[in-house]
Specification:
Length: 243
């Protein structure tokens, strides 16, 4: 379970919060779509959840571990796919995966088994000995996803993970997210693609100008706006897109 307790972020000299105070529970076993305009606060929230960015107030708990008070145990709970895949470019894919596995204390036998399985699943088995610097954007994204799943985390956090992926890679990742949630794990991903959220998610979180304005099922949200034909129409209404 993920808990936000009065979580907020305000940058120095800023007139308003980047993320306004929010208290919220996110239950396990679900795929949660985190949607909002550019600059709404999605990436800022994810970075506070992972400990990359300190909150201005409040805190995050991941399966009972505070990311600020007990960061090592908290970070063992999740795998994170950032919005940029330009990391560790001078390592080969295999070197990167071995490094990540050791960081998370995955045994050598489990590590080899998992790398073999993931590389086949993501169609990367013939590219593992190439430098990440030589990979296309989509291949870099896939190697980061593989690294995030190596320690079989109970929480899978992804920031715009489908951006730049070809249809095959996109389908593989979406199937992987569904499979992860079916095992009782939590998947939380940010996206601009409302159609993906509509088809893939058990619940959505809508953030607008730093404020969490909805958390719940698509069915409940649609019931509040019966005159709207799609999530896109509802999203524009509740975020005052046309104002």
């Amino acid at each position: 379970m993920i808990k936000f307790i009065d979580l907020a972020k305000k940058y120095p000299k800023a007139n308003d919060y980047a993320v306004k105070p929010v208290t919220m529970d996110i239950e396990s076993g679900k795929i949660i779509g985190f949607i909002g305009h550019n600059g709404a606060g999605k990436s800022t929230t994810l970075r506070m959840m992972t400990g990359i960015l300190p909150p201005s107030q409040g805190y995050v708990e991941l399966n009972g571990y505070s990311i600020t008070k007990d960061p090592l145990n908290a970070k063992m709970q999740f795998g994170y796919v950032p919005d940029s895949s330009d990391v560790f470019l001078k390592l080969t894919g295999l070197e990167y995966l071995n490094f990540i596995g050791k960081v998370y204390n995955v045994s050598e036998s489990d590590l080899k088994t998992r790398i073999d399985a993931l590389s086949k699943q993501y169609l990367m088995d013939e590219k593992l000995n190439d430098l990440i610097d030589s990979y296309s954007y989509g291949m870099r994204q896939k190697i980061i996803v593989m690294g995030a799943l190596l320690h079989e985390p109970s929480i899978f956090l992804l920031d715009e993970p489908l951006r730049g992926l070809d249809p095959v890679a996109s389908r593989i990742l979406k199937d992987s997210m569904v499979e992860h949630a079916k095992k009782g794990n939590t998947v939380l991903f940010s996206t601009h693609v409302l159609e993906v959220a509509e088809k893939l998610c058990d619940e959505i979180i809508v953030i607008n100008k730093g404020e969490f304005i909805y958390h719940g099922t698509l069915e409940d949200l649609k019931a509040k706006y019966p005159e709207s034909d799609s999530l896109e129409d509802i999203f524009f209404k509740i975020t005052n897109y046309h104002d």
